[in-house]
Amino acid sequence: MSVFVRRSDPNILAAVAALLICAGAAMADAPKRVVSINLCTDQLAMMLAAPGQLVSVSYLARDRRSSAMADLAEGYPVNRGLAEDVFLLKPDLVLTGDHTTPATVAMLERLGVRVERFSLATDFDQIADRLRQMGRALGREAMGAAAAARFEADVAGLQSDAGQRMARRAALYYANGYTSGDDTLAGHILAAAGLANIASELGMPAGGSLALETLVMAGPDALITAERFEGHSRSEDILNHGVLRRVAESAARSTTNANWVCGTPHVLSAIEGLRE
Amino acid sequence: MTPRALFTSLSVLLVGLFCASLLIGPAGLGIGESLTALIAGGDDPLALVMQEIRLPRAILGALIGVSLGLAGAAMQGYLRNPLAEPGLIGVSGSAALGAVLALQTGVAASFALALPLSGLAGAVIGVLLILMLAGPRGSSMTLILAGIAISALAGALTALVLNLSPNPFATSEIVFWMMGSLADRSMSHVWLAGPIMLVGWGMISLTARTLDALTLGEDATSALGLSLTATRLWLVLGVAASVGAATSVAGAIGFVGLVVPHLMRPLVGARPARLLWASALGGASMVLAADIAVRLVLPDRDLKLGVLMALVGAPLFLHLIYKTRREFA
Predict the structure, then answer these.
(1) Contact present, B280 and B223 (Cβ < 8 Å)
(2) Residue B307, domain member (yes or no)
């Protein structure tokens, strides 16, 4: 090879070099072995990755309670998000959320693995941005952009008639008496479904802990609680409190599901579920 | 102070604190309207808050306080040692372990009283271990050492069970089981734990005469025709039922059984039988006062009842150790 290059025309040499650089760039654009270690990037990657490109998703992706794509995730090997088991998969790209253990991410970067971080999407514009970001990261920019555009159109269709029904007031109530405000993904799902959030009446735009008696006094028209996990916890006991059953007698009661957890196009199903 | 005057003033204090507990909360309701709503009932939010949130909390606070005060006074009388306290000697810890095991294995859901009975079973094991290790007349040294060992073991096992739970919230609740809290308890918890606590009180009150006689020594007690074996049985079961049921719904609340009998002893002339009811009433007032304080000091943070009790109780505990240190030498 070196002999051939030395004897050849300098113009040909430049052309070959340029081709090599382009090919290199194309390879860097489309990673071949992608590992996702975050529940939300798992789902975005499963939507957009080429066949065979995504080699592993996190174990949470198979958990029906938190993953909207649990069935699809059965088809992928799972990882537990530890630097060691991720590195052994020889990834050329690792997808993480911005809350992934910093130690794991630092370790992977030290080992020379490219890590792409996706911050938490809390509104619909950010979901479209994440779809585009995932498309770029996987070297499937056109597909990401198309998914984002489709999602934006669907949201616009849903929101056009949401404004009329804002008279109904809903309360989001989770373990430990937590509630989500308007600035959260759950808050935007509520608004898109045409429900006013009582957390904003009470001055909690980001949510926070809402005392049971404050909730009762607010008298919501709809009560949306979280699905319970297996095993017992006192934190979730509050969702079985007698007073919530009494409140639910005069209010519609519904539970959140996997569609509410991540900023993906599955939030559309959550909105539709609420409207019914 | 005569017993009658003491009884009257403790009762007045208890009733006052019970009412205060009903009237204090994050919703900030008016006194008149909330009391009307409490009695009249109905389906409006105010009545729901009073009857389903504040009333169970106040009732549980009083019941648990009686249980812990009574258990502390009875154990101190029987062991003739002022350091005997359900929390310190590991009875509350083993009751919490029993309750946590029942909740995480699903036994608690199998029949109505499974949860408090599991707490009781855990507490029985704790009390029996203490009596076995410390002997019939426990010296402070063995009592405290045995208590540390049992508390540590029960605490570690409780943490282990919660760590292994498939529920992601369980691990963060180790603090609740070790510190105790009355936040967000409902009427169902009152019905669950109340009856077993009442049975426990009955059993403890059966030991009153023997506890008085025991101040004269074991021989004198037997000479009076009082059975030490029977007393021991009622004591173990009574303490386990009271502490076990209390802990299974509110976590391990420490120091009540230490502080209250200590405060009451001078007022009842060191008579163990009188100390029982005085500590019961005093314990209820103490827990209600502490529970009101956690709602006033940091209303949004679910400050644990046990934190406050330990802040009050630990200095007293140190004082008692200082007083009894000659015994250690």
Answers:
(1) no
(2) yes
ipTM over 0.95: no
Determine whether the interchain pair B170/A233 forms a contact, defined as Cβ–Cβ distance below 8 Å: yes
| A221 CB within 8 Å of a chain B CB | no
Residue A247 has which token pair? 């409140």
> Would you say the C-alpha torsion B52, B57, B58, B64 has a positive or negative sign?
positive
Domain hosting residue B300, numbered range: 65-328
Domain A30-121 of CATH type 3.40.50.1980: yes
In-domain check, residue B305:
yes
The answer to whether the Cβ–Cβ distance between A213 and B53 falls below 8 Å is yes
> Rounded to a whole number, what is the distance in Å from the CA of A269 to chain B's nearest CA?
25
Instruction: Read off the tokens for A60.
Output: 């949470």
Is A253 touching B (CB cutoff 8 A)?
no
The two tokens of residue A118 are 């996706």
Contact A235 B27 (CB under 8 A): no
Task: List CB contacts (< 8 A) between A235 and chain B.
Answer: 169, 172-173
Residue B280 lies in a domain: yes
Nearest to A163 by CA among A207, A187, A193: A193
Question: Into how many domains does chain B fold?
Answer: 1
- How does strand A196-197 pair with strand A169-173? parallel
Asked if residues B228 and B207 have their Cβ atoms less than 8 Å apart, the reply is: no
Predicted confidence pLDDT, tens digits, chain B (329 residues): 788 999 999 999 999 999 999 998 887 788 888 888 888 877 788 888 899 899 999 999 999 999 999 999 999 998 888 888 898 888 999 999 999 999 999 888 888 889 999 999 999 999 899 888 887 666 777 888 888 999 999 999 999 999 999 888 888 888 889 889 998 899 999 999 999 999 999 999 999 999 999 888 888 888 888 888 888 889 999 999 999 999 999 999 989 999 999 999 989 987 899 999 999 999 999 999 999 999 898 877 778 888 888 888 888 888 887 877 765 55
User: Which helix H or strand E contains B321, and what residues bound it?
Assistant: helix B305-323
CATH code at B216?
1.10.3470.10
User: Which of B48, B187, B188 is opposite residue A216, by nearest beta carbon?
Assistant: B48
Find the CB nearest A242 among B45, B46, B52: B52
**Residue B18 included in any domain:** no
Nearest one of B21, B98, B5 to B62, comparing CA atoms = B21
Contact B167 A229 (CB under 8 A): yes
- Report d(CA B21, CA B295) in Å as an integer: 9
CA distance B8 to A273: 60
Q: Which residue of A has its CA nearest to B102?
A: A232
Closest chain A residue to B190, measured at CA? A242
Q: What is the CATH number of domain A163-275?
A: 3.40.50.1980
Among residues 33-72 of chain A, which lie with CB inside 8 Å of chain B? none
What amino acid is encoded at B86 in this protein? P
Distance CA A186, CA A205 (A): 12
DSSP secondary structure letters along A38-50: SHHHHHHHHHHPP
The single residue listed with the structure tokens 């619909």 is A124
Chain B CB within 8 Å of residue A241 CB: yes
